[in-house]
Amino acid sequence: MRYWRRGVWVGAALGTGALMAVTVWNRSLEGVGPLLSVLGFLVSLAGLLHTTVRPAVALSPAEQLDRSADALADAVRAQWLAEWRLRRLQDPEPLAVRWAPAQPWLSDLDGAIGWPARDTERPDLSGLLADITQIFGYVPSRRLTVLGPPGSGKTVLAVRFTLDLLEHRGAGDPVPFLLQASSWQPDQQDLRQWMVERLVAGHPALATVGPSGGVLAAELVSCGRVLPVVDGLDELGGQLRTRAVFRLNTELDAGDPLFLTCRSDVYADVVEAGDVLTSAAVVELQPLGFEEAAGYLIRTARPVRGPAGARATAWDPVLEHVRRHPGEAAACCLRQVLELPLMVAMARAVYGESGADPAELLSRRALAEPAAMEQHLLDAFVPASFRTSARWDGDEAMRRLRFLARHLERRGTRDLAWWELHTALPGPLRPLAPLLLLGAVTEIICLAVWLSGQGAESPVVAAAVLTGLCAGYAALARENAGLRRTLLLSVAYVIPLAAIVGATRPLVRDPFYDVPFAGMHELLGRLTVGALYGVAVAAGLGVIGVTTAPAPATMPFPVLRTWRHRRWVWKAAAGIFVAIPAVLITELVIYPVSAPTLLTVAAVSAALGAFAVRGEGATAVEAGGPSRRRYGPGRAGRLGRALVRGVGVGLPAGAVLGLAFALVEGGTAAGRAEARDDLPFRAAVHRPADGGRYVVADDGTRYGLRPDGTAYIRWARPLEGDVIGGCSYYGGEPAFVPLSALSADHPCADATRRASVTAAMEVTAGTAATSAVRVRLPDGRLVATDGVEDRMDEAEWRWIARQDPGQLMRSAVSFGLAGGLGLGVVAGFAAGLHRWLGAPVDTSRTPSPLASLRTDRDTALIRGFLITLVAWLCNLFVAMLPMGAAVATVVVIPMGLVTVALSAWGRLLTARLWCCSTGRLPWRLMAFLAEAHERGVLRQAGAVYQFRHARLQERLASGEGADGR
After folding, report:
1. How far apart are CA 412 and CA 534, in angstroms?
2. How many angstroms separate the CA atoms of 601 and 579, rounded?
3. How far apart are the first and last CA of the chain?
């Protein structure tokens, strides 16, 4: 393998040297341009193979799963340790949360749990926070349900259980994974499917292919390597809770462990409406004692100078008043509120660390009820948390977080995923916002060009393409749409457009562009073809698999994610990626265009592209230590499978679309041709001996049809010119040049083989390979000509270029199949690259929301660049392809840029543009979320954020403040 790689690079170097030698010898680049393109492609391919083809270390499937489970355990432990510290649960120590066995009717039978028959041999399930794993180990079935009122510490207990279990985890033990029950739809998802979905959402690298060929997360779950820690069963709807317990009971096998939390009253309703959790012991959290809460608040409060220099806090007089006057309504209310660990934590943040006076809790009449006091603490928590922020004040942070909380409440979830923020857009904008933004920018450029006096048709074409693209994408790009649905909808869109083309196209053959829509009415043709082009691009996106709900992707090139100079590499790549299409579009729209104009366009577009990937901050991309090498199937094998799958989907899709277009367009045009008259006007029909027919106009011009259906014109006035032979301009074949066209600058003016001819000759249509028209010489030869078409009017040209129904149908089928298959191959190849570049490979890294955002951005840019590269490489060989296939390769060119816009990162950019410009979110969104996380308002669960507590999210979403805010 080493010598093979060296040979590739040596060969590339020798080839480059040979081309340079040829260039120096000829003192010109003429003739070596195609060779340079081919050599560049081969060198790029060699580099890609060098990167992808790497030897893999052979490990058994069990060993690979062990490594993956260990990596997941490290990632989960690092994540929740960071959350534990951010909540300051270790500063100075966690609250003394206690629990006791719940009422017996809420748990399963003793025999089902595995308790011994004698009560004296049964362990006591009462305990403190530090005893949770020990209590879990006492339960023979290894299933435990923890109940408690809202804010009693159930989530903190679940986190402590996860951390303690990971700390004492042995080889082969399952990895505890914390799952928010609110993200489960038990009426639609089974338990394992949900677990896999949440594993992949929190750790996108687990979406890679596992040792058995399936998704790695699914293999970990199916092999029992994941212990579900389900938090917040009460956050599901009434019927969904009962359904969730039913699924847990029926889908968990005997011996499968489970840790579940739920509110006490909700779990009682679930048991009454359905059943208990099979084989599960049940414990219930107990209220905090007043002295425990008071001691914690005093230990964590800011010290102040007391009498005689003694240490005191702002809480001392408040707590002393409660002790001396236990019967007062305000004192009773405060005692009741401080029974909940959540409210104790809120009181610490609002008063103990901010310097505010907690005496208002006893003096304000509006806080005389426990519910009002709890709402006051929740309302004051965010401003108190942001009191020292240099970027956002408390009121601004409150507005932003209220918008996010309402957004999550509308969606019925606790997960604040950056790739789902586009759902905050107004309904019609959600799926199409990136395309509309891209189209708006393109339309502005086209309008600017039109106002400058060039490209008057470009705004119309751009609007038509945008309409077709949006209409096709809205219907085609749906999650799990399936190939059949995609094809049916594509055909439904293509049929009316093809019928319009067939009904309005000229029934003649264009000698230069053998496409059905050549010669259509200018405005109608541009609208129809533009819409058809947009639908074709949308169909290509459907083949590639670009959906309206993209998930973050991970590149299979760890070096591009960890290299310290990667930021500048991505800036340069983005600049080049944006500049190349901008220059090409400028050349197409403005002709001729000056070099300074092109340089200006390239510089401006490159700067915009580089600015777009400037990053979201300076935090580390990923935590969890250095990356580990991936074991198992190599990247080259996955690339091959992805390409085969992509082409396997693209070919039938392209063939179906091309055939549908051909049959509808060709059938419509053939029907029109069948209904027209055989001859251009009504007159006496002459039938010569050769079997043809013709009519004679008033000026003596003959319009005729030969026996094979070829139309011709024979003017009454003779043509005068020279028959020239051996001229390279006509490929060395004889050609007739009228005297009017035979000027001194004619390419064949110096030809020696020539003969003068003056005669009435037949004129018929030519081909792109010969000339626009041909003439039949007096000796019967049919030769090319140049300049005769200048004598013809529109009616005469339409007569000689007419096609019969069979020719129209054959032309349509040829164009449709060639275009469909070409589109299928190129789009299929692009789909393979798209899938391959979205395959995560590194399972040992702990993604943060910012890390997954930056990785998805990098992946989107690489995807778009390679798809554009594939399209342009195919365009290098356009001259060798049929016209339909050549047009199909042009369809794929914008897909690279469109896939970037429709990626998760591209959708976030669009959502930020909308939400930030309307004041709903700050422009530095990820920095704001990161600071909210650092200040304890949000918590991180893998690649998503969540509010610290469900009650905090619900209170912020309500938009009401006890203090009038």
Report:
1. 35
2. 7
3. 69
| Nearest Cα residue to 35 out of 25, 43, 46 | 43
As a whole number of angstroms, the longest Cα–Cα distance in the chain is: 134
> Which of 486, 775, 456 lies closest to 589 in space, CA to CA?
456
Answer whether 482's CB lies under 8 Å from 649's CB: no
Output the pTM of the full model: 0.70
Q: Are 135 and 283 spatial neighbours (Cβ–Cβ below 8 Å)?
A: yes
3-state secondary structure of 504: helix
Question: Over the range 855-882, which residues count as b (16 or more CB within 10 Å of their CB) and which as e?
Answer: bbbbbbbbbbbbbbbbbbbbbeeeeebb
Q: Over range 745-768, report the average pLDDT.
A: 77
- Tens of pLDDT, residue by residue over 7-53, are 554 555 555 555 455 444 454 444 444 444 444 445 545 554 554 44
Question: What angle separates helix 483-504 from helix 522-544, to the nearest 10 degrees?
Answer: 170
Is 856 within 8 Å of 906 (Cβ atoms)? no
Strands 311-313 and 143-148: unpaired
Per-residue CA distances from 894 to 9, 302, 455 (Å): 32, 61, 19
* Residues 701, 715 contacting (CB under 8 angstroms): yes
- In 3-state terms, the chain is what percent helix, strand and coil (to 5)? 55, 10, 30
Q: Which of 277-291, 471-485, 652-666 comes out lowest in average pLDDT?
A: 471-485
Q: Return the SS3 of 764.
A: strand
Q: In whole angstroms, give the CA distance from residue 814 to residue 808.
A: 10
- Give the helix/strand (H/E) hosting 1: none
Distance of CA 600 to the CA centre of its chain: 31
Residue closest to 606 by CA, chosen among 573, 653, 640, 559: 573
Strand order of the sheet with strand 175-180?
A: 127-128, 98-101, 281-285, 143-148, 258-263, 226-231, 175-180
Angle between helices 429-451 and 458-476 (to 10 degrees): 170
Token output for 871: 């399209």
pLDDT single digits (tens) 764-776: 876 655 566 788 8
Rounded Cα distance between 738 and 785, Å, is 8
Provide the 3-class DSSP secondary structure of residue 939: strand
What are 821's two structure tokens? 């298959």
| DSSP letter (8 states) at residue 699 | T
CA distance 514 to 768: 9
**How far from 867 is each of 275, 404, 507, 571, 658, CA to CA, in Å?**
54, 35, 36, 19, 21
State both tokens at 329: 């309504």
The average pLDDT across 487-504 equals 79
3-state secondary structure 318-333: HHHHHHHCCCCHHHHH
Residue 598 has a pLDDT of: 65
Q: Are 435 and 466 in contact (CB under 8 A)?
A: yes
Strand 143-148 and strand 127-128: pairing? unpaired
Q: Output the six-digit token pair for 899.
A: 């896939």
Between the alpha carbon of residue 889 and those of residues 778, 849, 879, 894, the distances in Å are 44, 37, 12, 10
Which are the contacts of 547, defined by CB distance < 8 A and separation ≥ 6?
477, 478, 479, 481
CA–CA separation, 853 vs 554, rounded Å? 10
Candidates 846, 870, 811, 873; CA nearest to 942 is 846
- Burial tier of 956 (Cβ tally within 10 Å: 0-12, 13-18, 19+): buried
CB within 8 Å of 891: residues ≥ 6 apart: 533, 536, 537, 540, 823
Q: Rounded CA gap, 365 and 356, in Å?
A: 18
In degrees and rounded to multiples of 5, residue 301 shows phi and psi of -80, 160
Coil, helix or strand for 738?
strand
